[in-house]
Amino acid sequence: MPDYGLIPNEELLRLKKEIEGLRTGKKSGSEMVDSIENLTKSIETLNELFFAATQEMRAEEKSEHKILKRIEPLFDKLDQILDQNTKIARAIVALTEMIRERKNSYQEPRPRPLFRPARPAPASPAPSFSPPQNPNFMERKEGLFK
């Protein structure tokens, strides 16, 4: 028997295409299938990752909403405080301007003396002054020490 056998025409065409693909650098059918399977797995993994990220984002959004509900009254109070501070600042500026206006229109009085001026003393009779009498020490003849 001969060393060769008859091959159907379809099989022969498939083999020729495969050889031509190898010569041009194209992948064979089994490699292509493996590549497609790897791509499918990668896409599934990516899809799972996006799903998990979506779930986390929804959870964060809910927690942010809760936090905003708690913080919102604080923002309102801060706005009120800012309004009050603005009013206080305007009032201080107005008072300063009023004080300056009064100070400019006010004439300074003469300074008061720090002491009271001397008042004249009430009239009184002049004191009578008589010269003292000379004591006479000699009149006593008796000695002090006997």
Write the topology of this structure.
Layout: H1 9-24, H2 29-105
> Major beta sheet, specifics?
none
* Approximate helicity band: 55-70%
Strand content: under 5%
Residue-averaged pLDDT? 80
Q: End-to-end span in angstroms? A: 196 Å
Structural class: mainly alpha
Count of β-strands: 0
Question: C-alpha Rg, in Å?
Answer: 62 Å
Shape: rod-shaped
Count of alpha/pi helices: 2
| N-to-C order of helices and strands | HH
Task: Walk me through the structure.
This protein has 146 residues and is mainly alpha-helical. The protein has a domain at 9-105. It is built from 2 helices and no strands. It has helices at residues 9-24, 29-105. The longest helix has 77 residues, at 29-105. The radius of gyration is 62 Å and the shape is rod-shaped. The model has no long low-confidence stretch (mean pLDDT 80).
Task: Quickly describe the structure.
The chain is mainly alpha-helical. The protein has two helices and no strands.
Label this structure with key terms.
146 residues, mainly alpha, 2 helices, 64% helix, 0% strand, rod-shaped
